[in-house]
Amino acid sequence: MFYRKKFVFILAMLTSAFAQAQSPQFQVEVSADSVHVEAQYTVHGKTLALFNVQQTEQLPNGQAGFIRNLVVKDADGKPVKFKATEDGDWNLARGNQTVTVSYDVVAEHGNYRWPAGEEEVAYRTNDGLFFTGYALFIVPAEKMDTDISVKFSLPTGWQASTPWRATGDNQFQVYNRRELLVNAMFFGDAHREVLKEGDYELELVLGKNYANSSKLFTEVLRPMLKHSTELFGSAPKRNRYLIIVNEGASGDGGAFEGSFSQLINGPATENNRVVWGYVMAHELFHFWNGVGLAPAAETEEWFKEGVTDYMTSLLLYRHGVFNEQWFHKRLETMYTRYMIGKFYQRANVSLQEAGLDKQNQRALVYGGGALVAIALEAEMRKASNGEAGVAELLRAMYQELALQNKPYTLEDIRRLSKQISGYDPAPLFAEHVSGKGYLSLTEPLKQLGLSLAAFAEEATVTRDAAADELASKIHQKTFGL
């Protein structure tokens, strides 16, 4: 049985010593295959919860299925009865009080398939344990006090990597509940290094099988950090980020508040960097477009994901990380995704509606969003004689909205597009974002000095040898080549 007798003593200490505590405190003991959590906080209401529970066919209560030995006690050390719900909540018999909560988390999440992938939940490796806050911390559901303290107890030789502010050895201060939950962390003896750009730093955690390939990773990250900062006219809104890379079949990644996790299918090499390097750059770009610059609603997932797809590809090409052939292949992939999502999956929904069911409508959200970005690029550049496009739009949005902590709407995108380029995308959005019209890529690419040959979902993108003077100018202004 995982329960540790020494934590009976710790639980008693917490109950008495922290009875008057004003801020939440977590003490987390990590072992090679499980975690034990002792926490004290005030419950404003009557419910404890795991947030963002991802229900699966095998796990109807998602991450809550890995919680064991949950005990809740009041400030006097008396047990508080509770009833578990099917979606990762625990309703207390008595609420609105300071409680001490203890429980175990069995690290078997990687044995199951998750809607968004294990890289957005938790998994175990030979180097240690990966967790998101969603899978680790049971917290007050209605409201949680700020200035949260988290301290980890780890096996010898292990280290806790988090995006939070360190206050001691494996001890951190977390501002609020969102910071606690919407982040990734790693406990173990994996390879670590820190990249600095201006006044912020990025900690890179690599599974040991990738430690000797760290140069391949930094050759993608360094230019993306530099040129994304230039594009948005600002560093990310945080001064510290965490990237965790391990081996996994999905080859996908997930972005969080101040961190992202990535799985690579097999070894990391120069040859396959075109795949995992793109995923890494995409997730890094989300620190600006997605975290700092956030949509007001899921209906704008097409912009968060599709525009990120397009701009990540453009930056990697424009600044020499990958070549023109790779970039044209990325444009072809965007077209193919859109065709699959719209016609082969028979998704009779708009791009905005697809965002409400992102995982199932992934091809349409990403592919359709990228195609709208290309069309927007072409029209904005044409209207401004090549001077303003999607990059300038993102910069304007970031400066006006993100730095003021304002989420964006479709109207914001339309308004700023017109303001900086003279092109009003209202008809484009009405037909292809809010509406269900088919968006042809032939004319937008021609305006960008490119040529499309396509049949069904197959596509080939090349330079347009017959491009006129304006298209040639727009091509140079957009792609920098």
What is the CATH architecture descriptor of the largest domain? Answer: Orthogonal Bundle
CATH topology of the largest domain: Neutral Protease, domain 2
Overall geometric form: globular
Helix content: 25-40%
Average residue-wise pLDDT: 93
Uncertain regions spanning at least 5 consecutive residues: 1-21
Main beta sheet, described? 7 strands, mixed
Question: Can you tell me the number of structural domains?
Answer: 3
Oligomer: single chain
Indicate the radius of gyration in whole angstroms: 24 Å
Q: What is the CA-CA span between the terminal residues?
A: 63 Å
The spatial strand order of the largest sheet comes to 4-7-2-1-11-14-13
How many E strands? 22
- Counting helices, strands and paired strands, the structural category is alpha+beta
What is the strand content?
15-25%
Given the structure, what is the number of helices? 14
Given this structure, which CATH class of the largest domain is correct? Mainly Alpha
Task: Describe this structure in a few short sentences.
The chain has 481 residues and is of the alpha+beta class. The chain is built from 14 helices and 22 strands. The chain starts with 5 loop residues before the first helix and ends with a helix.
Which key phrases capture this entry?
disordered N terminus, five-stranded mixed β-sheet, 22 strands, 481 residues, alpha+beta, seven-stranded mixed β-sheet, Neutral Protease, domain 2
Explain this structure.
- It is a single chain.
- The protein folds into three domains: 1-118 and 132-181, Immunoglobulin-like (Sandwich); 190-286, Neutral Protease, domain 2 (Orthogonal Bundle), CATH 1.10.390.10; 298-479, Orthogonal Bundle (Neutral Protease, domain 2).
- The chain has 481 residues and is α+β, with helices and mostly antiparallel strands.
- Strand 13 and strand 14 form a beta hairpin.
- It has helices spanning 6-17, 133-136, 177-181, 214-232, 273-285, 301-318, 324-344, 351-354, 362-383, 390-400, 410-421, 426-432, 442-447, 469-479; strands at residues 25-30, 34-43, 47-49, 67-74, 82-84, 89-92, 97-106, 122-124, 128-132, 139-140, 148-153, 159-161, 165-168, 171-174, 184-188, 191-197, 200-206, 240-247, 253-255, 259-264, 450-455, 458-463.
- The chain starts with 5 loop residues before the first helix and ends with a helix.
- Helix 4 packs parallel to helix 5 (273-285) and helix 9 (362-383) packs across helix 14.
- The protein contains 14 helices and 22 strands.
- The longest helix is centred in the last third of the chain and has 22 residues, at 362-383.
- The strands form five sheets. A seven-stranded mixed beta sheet has the order 4-7-2-1-11-14-13.
